[in-house]
Amino acid sequence: MMTRSEQLFDRARNVMPGGVNSPVRACRAVGTYPRFLQKGRGGRVFDADGQEYVDLVCSWGPLILGHCRREVLEAVGEAMADGLSFGAPTAAEVEMAELICRMVPGMEMVRMVNSGTEAVMSALRLARGATGRNKIIKFEGCYHGHSDSMLVKAGSGALTGGTPDSKGVPPEMAADTLTARYNDLESVESLLRANSGQVAAVIVEPVAANMGVVLPKPEFLPGLRALCDRYGALLIFDEVITGFRLAAGGAQEYFGVRADLVTYGKIIGGGMPVGAYGGRRALMELVAPSGPVYQAGTLSGNPVAMAAGLAQLRILEKNPQIYTRLAEMGGELAKRLRERAQRAGVPVQVNQIGSLLSVFFTEAPVGSFAAAKRSDLDRFARYYRAMLSRGVYAAPSQFEAMFLCTEHTREDLERVLQGAECAMAQIAQEA
Ligand SMILES: *Cc1c(COP(=O)(O)O)cnc(C)c1O
Predict the structure, then answer these.
(1) Span from the CA of 344 to the centroid of ligand 1 (angstroms)
(2) Residue 56 and residue 394: Cα distance in Å, rounded?
(3) Could you give the CA distance from residue 163 to residue 186 in angstroms, rounded to a whole number?
(4) CA Rg value for the chain
(5) Separation of alpha carbons 194 and 179, rounded Å
(6) pTM over 0.85
(7) pLDDT tens sequence across 108-131
(8) Which of 22, 60, 143, 242 to mutate to test the pocket of ligand 1 (most atoms within 8 A of CB)?
(9) Ligand 1 atom having least distance to the Cα of 60
(10) Ligand 1 centre from 266 Cα, in Å?
């Protein structure tokens, strides 16, 4: 008997490439079929077959307050009642921009868009327009959405699917994208030196979270700031994941390093499709209609999306203890996952910062993309399937993060740990 998810997946594959609207969801890297989800509540999701799971994906990060948070749903309901879209300015957009400027250090102006991809694409255009330079430095294994120039040695689904360099990207689009090694300042400096006066920006995930979670070494982000200043390049923090997750002011606040431009997505939409980019006034004033860098969007600043994002961000702004609690939860989960693995005799590295975690199946510490890639993907796949069968819904790839939300309960974490214990025992036995 096929499950309802399998039946839906069969139909989906007939009419959608790979049966999905975003590649990682197809679960190919973990040797199973995707569970079609029907409902979410707090820190849990329910699939089309009525199975319940602890949700460690949380829509890939946006749902830091969990599914169906009352204030968010109410705000969306109220906004909807007045109309779904106008394509004209609304008060909610002003409130959103003011709120972001208040929460994020150094943020003076923002522009709302519809996705993280769009935010990055627009920020890069602005960086090029502002500097009159064309080249961009990105890091191997970092993911910045699917725009042409960023699909070079990309992380996330591009990495999971084994195509970090996509077909269909003209070589001349990729030629201006230079790639350095994350946590390796020397690799950045040699590119800046070799391309002196040509690099518009260095773009980085301040915490790499699309090669699995890899933390920046203490000197890495300050070092990037100094190098960008020395070579006249802008520093772009892609905070689509870390924004409003590491701290109310994101990675800039958490690490005390200022970027010139910052991109957002995920959390700022509260589950609706939203992105944003922003920074200093002098830079942002270059964006149309104030300046010569064109960028537009029919649904940008959509009132329903703004309502969801605003409701979530307001709660985060008013409750800074959320971040302390999430970090405690993350720290404890990481520690106990390490204990379980050790007891089972399965070598793993658990990287964690705040509410972001990854379990890498490898013996050596993971502080680089190269180290992340040495993970045992077969073991990860077995771990994933064992967790799933015990009611834990995690990201179906070694190269993605686990996300905690405020609604995860002690009982949820116990279920995750029990699942991990069974999974590790199984792996040890099959080894
Ligand atoms: C998810 C992500 C993006 C892309 O955002 P989309 O909304 O999927 O287009 C960009 N950068 C980072 C760091 C991300 O994690």
Answers:
(1) 35
(2) 5
(3) 26
(4) 21
(5) 13
(6) yes
(7) 999 999 999 999 999 999 999 999
(8) 143
(9) 1
(10) 7
